[in-house]
Amino acid sequence: MSETGRGTKEEQYREKRKEGWLLFSKVLSAGIGGVDAYPVRVEADVSEGLPQFQMVGYLASEVREAGDRVRTALRNVGCPMPPKRITVNLAPAGVRKAGSRFDLAVAAVVLASMQKVPAENLRGLMIAGELSLSGQVLGIPGVLALAEAARTAGASRCIVPSVNAAEGALIGNVEVIGVTELAELIELLRHPEQGKRVFVDGGLLLKKSVQSEEDFSQINGQKTVRRAAEIAAAGMHNFLMIGPPGSGKTMIARRIPGILPALSLEESLRITKIYSVAGLLEPEEPLITRRPFRAPHHTTTAEALAGGGRLPLPGEISLSSGGILFLDELPEFRRSALEILRQPLEEHRICVSRTAGTYVFPADFMLVAAMNPCACGYFPDRNRCGCTPKEVSRYLGRLSQPLLDRIDICMQVPKLSYEELQEEENEGSGTIRKRVEAARRIQKKRFRGTSVSFNSRMGIRETERFCYLGSGEKRLLKQAFDSLSLSARAYHRLLRVARTIADLGGEERVLEAHILEALGYRPPERSEWQKGV
């Protein structure tokens, strides 16, 4: 085609646009996959033809329903759709879009195609939000991830529901503006300079965070268990407590988050993004400032722990990332739920596969569990326990050896004596936390430049490198290995715990005293688990 012909065609196209019967506009929005957002280009075309509103682009039913919500909302704010053929496309077409977050973006491109707002004002924008029929803008989950995706995609401004604006503003280099009504969006698109940016200082929110009232100073007695909890927190070791009812297992577990190091802003944003995607973030608290402590009931299913569903969402394991997953009455959980823990405890992530795609959720958590020694809780006290040996064996057998292999520290929690209950002065969480933070700093320096963060995450190569042993320590370990019939997994687990004990003592090398203490926290092998029943 000649230049003249092309010019004539372009002129005809411009004339048609001026006449208002061939209009096209586009804007960025975002969908959620796992805990991350991905950009979605929302396009609208208005042309002559039978009056029709059609949405395409591999859409879930709730996205297709956006057409009815947008049409009604536009009419109720005084901008009815013209009797023309309107086509809305959400690209890329190969990725399934779900949720109601695209309503506001669809309304924006339709308004631009109707020449109600300037189409050029949609450039550099990412828009997301749900619309009610009256034109109100409703909150949506995952705005923090959306703002992060906007920054990555090069958008300079995000328009989101006002109720979610604070969490989106936590992401720097992106201007976040909240709207409460569709009419407010229309005015903002006509006069972009009038938008009021939301500012939130994440670092200031962290400084203002209030520590939990649950403190280790409230726990009397159980000094060895308190020590084990400190070691577990210092090295991020999985921790199991076994003892009768009322011995303080749950009290100790609930106070472990208080001795973990304070969250950094980076960690806080990572955790907040998970809660935002799950729809569990409170508008009044846009940033998670304390480490999570999740304690699901023992009737929880494997799916609720791992996450998933028709629209895959994070489960309890992912929600506990950066903090504690506490499983009380461990043997009472379904076998399938317990076994699903095995892979996340090794890989620190969960992959959920659906026909629409594969979703990856984080699982960087510390497992803390508690259990009774038998169904009634009082074995081996035969004055109170009426369980038969077979019943005790069956109860303990609910935990598989592969799951026990992933427990680093196991402690017997004895019944408290009267004298222990009368203790008045106990070490507080603040004092313990300082020692834990010092040990964490040693680990951070040690593992700099590697993918390892904590002693509990060391592989065989790192364990051999960073757990240097003298001749005396080697003799002690050989004696323990032979007499206790340790497996290779138990051997390396013992060394990792000993390395953390050494870090708490400020020692560069693992000494005999550290190994001896680590042996006292050793989880039982299957052959020992039911010994004495």
* CATH topology type of the largest domain: Rossmann fold
CATH architectural designation of the largest domain: 3-Layer(aba) Sandwich
Strand portion: 15-25%
Beta strands, count:
18
Q: Let me know the largest β-sheet.
A: 5 strands, parallel
What integer is the average pLDDT? 89
Please identify the oligomeric state: single chain
- Compute the number of structural domains: 2
Q: What does the radius of gyration come to?
A: 29 Å
CATH superfamily of the largest domain: P-loop containing nucleotide triphosphate hydrolases
Derived from helix and strand composition plus strand pairing, the structural class reads alpha/beta
The shape is elongated
Structure explained in plain terms:
The protein is of the alpha/beta class and 533 residues long. The chain folds into two domains: 19-200, Ribosomal Protein S5, domain 2 (2-Layer Sandwich), CATH 3.30.230.10; 208-446, 3-Layer(aba) Sandwich (Rossmann fold), CATH 3.40.50.300. Helix content is 40%, strand content 17%. The chain has a five-stranded parallel β-sheet with strand order 11-14-17-10-18. Strands 1-2-4-3 form a four-stranded mixed β-sheet. Strand 12 (307-308) and strand 13 (313-314) form a beta hairpin. Helix 9 (223-235) runs parallel beside helix 19 (429-446). It starts with a helix and ends with a helix. Mean pLDDT is 89; it is low at 1-5.
